[in-house]
From TrEMBL:
GO terms, biological process: 1,6-anhydro-N-acetyl-beta-muramic acid catabolic process; amino sugar metabolic process; peptidoglycan turnover
Pfam families: AnmK
UniProt family annotation: Belongs to the anhydro-N-acetylmuramic acid kinase family.
NCBIfam families documented for this protein: PRK09585.1-5 (NF007141)
Pathway: Cell wall biogenesis; peptidoglycan recycling; Amino-sugar metabolism; 1,6-anhydro-N-acetylmuramate degradation
Residues annotated for ATP binding in this entry: G12, T13, S14, M15, D16, G17, I18, D19
Function text: Catalyzes the specific phosphorylation of 1,6-anhydro-N-acetylmuramic acid (anhMurNAc) with the simultaneous cleavage of the 1,6-anhydro ring, generating MurNAc-6-P. Is required for the utilization of anhMurNAc either imported from the medium or derived from its own cell wall murein, and thus plays a role in cell wall recycling.
Reaction equations catalysed: 1,6-anhydro-N-acetyl-beta-muramate + ATP + H2O = N-acetyl-D-muramate 6-phosphate + ADP + H(+)
HAMAP family: AnhMurNAc_kinase (MF_01270)
Chain's gene name: anmK
Main EC class the enzyme belongs to: transferase
Protein name (record): Anhydro-N-acetylmuramic acid kinase
Length: 370
């Protein structure tokens, strides 16, 4: 068994910063999780990425970089390089062999076969002196897949090493990021996965627009409000929820259009309910009801989302990643480290049951430092 020590780098749809995590792995069952870090984007940079989503709408071929995108790609890459260099300086004992680089998604249009992550693998390799695997979504799309979610291969590996006391399959990992995605892991057989709906992105946009804060910290704003059931129902009527998996979302597929006229607190509480109900609706599209839900991503810190999930989980246990000995903030970055090792070994990153690709496919572009 040959183990590799990789660093994963994730700048997610919440656009809040760069998550970095170390995983030492054979790319299969052996997973040793290491330290990590988070480098926040300042508000003005977050706004710049948000504005870039508009520039990206006009992209036809995925290599196009209209408007600010070319300059922004360089800036995002250099910020990742700085995050890696600082982390390596803080952890001089670490012998990292490889970087798994997600970049920043600015457009995801699976129906057109286009997904664009800003991130220059060659520049990152040059700046850090380390081999880089990036662009892990494209090959999946080229093989008929959605190009997302990719984290299920990692969820499936983690599920196999859960503490005995939690060993209740089927397990469902839920990542509540900007967008939420779910991975159903049966006791035997392939995981089933798909994007399940808006996670925090609508809440973030709402409290930012109506309250001038970037997110609803610990659901405090929502605590002052109530659920407006008609608005939840209106979101849940979206054709996305009726569509069978595989399916994936662009950050802008759901908007605040359905929620005008509410008070700040009612809106925050209602959108937390939308996030939870979207996840519960996803359970109806799984092969069977999960017996254990493991909640990851920043949305697990919103007690209203988690509370609504517990209330609707039909007797299944709903726990946070930390209750399973995992790290709910680092998991996506860990996944990108794990997937980078799978990529260099030529192992599949995605499966027909996770993205709809025609057969299990590997992916990613490896760039060696000069
Ligand atoms: N203390 C908190 N209380 C409530 N929500 C929080 C808290 N901390 C973070 N969040 C939410 O989590 C979001 C970040 O989550 P995360 O880092 O998992 O998203 P992401 O990785 O960017 O998204 P994706 O998984 O879609 O790529 C923030 O934008 C915020 O909405
Ligand atoms: C295109 C893209 O970046 N999609 C993200 C997004 O954020 C969450 C959800 O939508 C998920 O499908 C995906 O990220 C995770 C990490 C994934 O691919 O597994």
């Amino acid at each position: 068994m040959s183990l590799k020590c990789a660093i994963g780098l994730m700048s997610g749809t919440s656009m809040d910063g760069i998550d970095l995590a170390v995983v030492t792995t054979d790319g299969e069952a052996e997973v040793q999780r290491g330290p990590g870090s988070f480098t926040a984007y300042e508000a003005s940079f977050r706004r710049r990425i948000e504005a870039a989503l508009d520039d990206a709408r006009t992209i036809d071929k995925r290599e196009e970089r209209p408007g600010d995108l070319e300059e922004l790609e360089r800036e995002i890459t250099l910020r990742h390089a700085e995050a890696v260099k600082k982390f390596l300086a803080d952890h001089p004992q670490l012998r990292a062999e490889l970087l798994g680089f997600h970049g920043q998604t600015v457009l995801h249009r699976p129906e057109r076969g286009v997904t664009v992550q800003l991130g220059d693998g060659a520049l990152l390799a040059k700046e850090t002196g380390l081999p880089v695997v990036h662009d892990m979504r494209a090959n999946d799309m080229a093989h008929g897949g959605q190009g997302a979610p990719l984290v299920p291969a990692y969820h499936a590996a983690l599920a196999k090493s859960l503490p005995e006391a939690l060993g209740e399959f089927p397990v469902c990992f839920v990542n509540i990021g900007g967008i939420s995605n779910v991975t159903f892991v049966p006791a035997a057989g392939d995981p089933v996965a798909f994007d399940s709906g808006p996670g925090n992105t609508l809440i973030d946009q709402w409290v930012s627009r109506e309250g001038g804060v970037p997110f609803d910290a610990d659901g405090m704003i929502a605590s002052e409000g109530g659920v407006v059931a008609s608005v939840v129902a209106s979101y849940l009527e979206s054709p996305f929820f009726g569509r069978a998996a595989p399916k994936s979302l662009d950050r802008n597929d759901f908007t605040l259009d359905r929620i005008s006229g509410l008070e700040l607190a009612d809106g925050a509480r209602t959108l937390a309910a939308v996030s939870a109900q979207a996840i519960l609706a996803a359970a109806t599209q799984m092969p069977e009801q999960p017996r254990l839900w493991i909640i990851c991503g920043g949305g697990r810190r919103n007690p209203h989302i988690v509370g609504d999930l517990r209330a609707g989980a039909k007797g299944a246990q709903v726990i946070l990643a930390e209750d399973a000995g995992l790290d709910g903030d680092a998991m996506e970055a860990e996944a990108w480290a794990y997937l980078a090792v799978r990529s260099v070994k030529g192992l599949p990153l995605t499966f027909p049951t996770t993205t709809g690709c025609r057969e299990p496919v590997t992916g990613g572009v490896l760039t060696m430092p000069a």
